[in-house]
Amino acid sequence: MEAQINPTFQSLKRNVGQFNLHGKTFLIPEMNRIGAHLLAGVFRSFGVNALVMDTYRGLDLGKEFTSGKECFPCQVTAGDVLFFLKEEQARLGGAFDPENYIYFMPEADGPCRFGMYNKYQRIILDSFPDLKDVKIGSLTTQNSYALDGMIEKGKTRNFRKAGYFSVIVADILDRLLWRVRPYEKSPGATDSFIEKAMKSMTAAFERYGADMAFDRILDGLEEIIEEGKSHIDPGVPRKPLIGIVGEIYLRTHVQSNQDVIRVLEKYGAEVVNASIAEWVNYTTYDRMRSEKIGLRLSLKQLRFKRARAHLKAMLNYVSELLYQQSRQRKIYKRVKERIDMLDDHAVGHLENVLKEGNIFSFDVGTEACLSIAGILEYVREGCNGVVNVYPFTCMPSTMTSAVVRPIMNRLKVPYLDTPYDGTFQPGREAAIRTFMYQAQQHFKRHGGKSRGTHENKDVD
Ligand code: SF4
């Protein structure tokens, strides 16, 4: 007698994966706002009808259809897609066809729970008869987010390049916002300026992305940087620099983290957040690293055929990583000629930082290795404090906190954990204010050494 296969598990296989996006509406959840919109622009330039869903408006739905034990980003994104589809049903009535939509939810292999979001959300969508035909389009870190089957075969390489380029440009726009806003001449001007800049860059990616006319996009970016500088009041002295690390969704999703960067700025900070490109580079680096380990093992076991396969895969990842890093360096160089901005951390360097101090290991995986090494780099770069932003109960961020707390005590650099789960904790702002007091003291004693100057002297 054959065992019955649970229909839920069939759906996980059949309705989660890499589907052709042609002729479908591709729903992108908003994580960091700018990055999501620029990526949607890239998809549109490749002929995919991509749109960014409104975010956080469906949080009640997300909480209603989860148990409360899931990671907070899983609840928020579940709410986003349910809310969007509900509105779409109301808008289209009988013309609503669930097969027209593919919802984007990538995944990562363990040990943390991100790999389960799309499975769990599949179960939620399947519990609504009208929504069970909405597919979930997924990319995985297993193959460093390869797009096979989603975009026309001959175009995936160019898409990856344009997509990566959009990630860097989004990081730069975010960094520009955090560089300018604490010193703005007119309150609120930077937010409106960055919103306008995001729209113009989205249009540029939509227009030039598929043709890979990256110089045209960079020309536009340079104009934006120049305009951004004009919003800085040169009379406002530089402020303590606070570095942010943590779980990628929470630290970049402004609604989920209750706008922690703005709160830090309110108490006198200039902030820099870990970038999205760092995570993309890390996934490529990690695959390269795994292939290298596989190669060594196969050679030890004299399994040459397997060793050759590992070598080939490793070289592919090496060339991809070299491409990514050189592209990133070139863009940062052009930007830094116009405004001072912290460079992004190179992932190989972060691994060396951990090895040198014998503090943690990339073998453990997850964002903990990036966060722990990133914190130490922030300290070396002259940050006056570090904040770890993460979902309540997040495993990698809890590990980060456990490892770095004693180190930060020893280094005498202020450090703050800020877990979020959608509730408003009355003591949080007081904790941030106290942390900023410590950061101000640190700044008075040590300044911001690697920024070179405490004045906005490159702007006038
Ligand atoms: S990184 Fe944290 S929040 Fe994200 S899936 Fe893992 S445990 Fe959950």
Structure description:
With 460 residues, this protein is α/β, with parallel strands linked by helices. It has 16 helices and nine strands. Helix 6 packs parallel to helix 8 (214-230) and helix 13 packs across helix 14. The relative contact order is 0.11. Mean pLDDT is 93; it is low at 1-5. It binds iron/sulfur cluster (SF4).
The unreliable regions are 1-5
- What's the total helix number? 16
**% residues in beta strands:** 5-15%
Strand order of the largest sheet: 1-5-4-2-3
What is the straight-line distance between the termini? 80 Å
- CA-based gyration radius: 22 Å
How much helix, percentage-wise, in residues?
A: 40-55%
Average pLDDT across residues? 93
Bound molecules: iron/sulfur cluster
Shape: globular
Class per helix and strand makeup: alpha/beta
Largest sheet: 5 strands, parallel
One letter per element, helices H and strands E, the order comes to HEEHEHHEHEHHHEHHEHHHHEHEH
Number of E strands: 9
Task: Put the structure in a nutshell.
Helix content is 55%, strand content 9%.
Question: Would you spell out the secondary-structure blueprint of this structure?
Answer:
Layout: H1 7-14, E1 16-17, E2 25-28, H2 33-45, E3 49-52, H3 59-64, H4 72-92, E4 101-104, H5 117-126, E5 135-137, H6 156-180, H7 189-208, H8 214-230, E6 241-246, H9 248-252, H10 260-266, E7 270-273, H11 276-300, H12 304-336, H13 347-357, H14 366-380, E8 385-391, H15 395-411, E9 415-420, H16 428-446
Helix pairs in contact: 2-6, 2-7, 6-7, 6-8, 6-12, 7-8, 11-12, 13-14, 14-15
Bound molecules: iron/sulfur cluster.
Iron/sulfur cluster (SF4) binds at residues 71, 73, 112-114, 247, 367, 391, 394-396.
